[in-house]
Amino acid sequence: MSNHFPAKTMWRSFFCALVATVTLQTMNPYRTGKLVMFQVSYDRDWHFFEIIFFVLLGIFGVSSHPSESFLGCLLVWNAITRCMQSRN
User: How confident is the model at residue 63 (pLDDT cuts 50, 70, 90)?
Assistant: First the structure.
């Protein structure tokens, strides 16, 4: 996977999403006037205890790339620091 993501690709993706949205609005495939088949509506607010689990997910990370969590960032930083120290 490349870290380089050119702006040209971003604009192309935006244009494709725009064309898809206009096409769906024009076709009205579900005959509901909506762009999606299922819609989620929230009738309750979140509870304070739920924030604990999101903080834990942010610290320990549940992702495909190790540097997307706080702990992963610390491990990467530690590896880079040790590598730089071993070169000196």
Answer: low
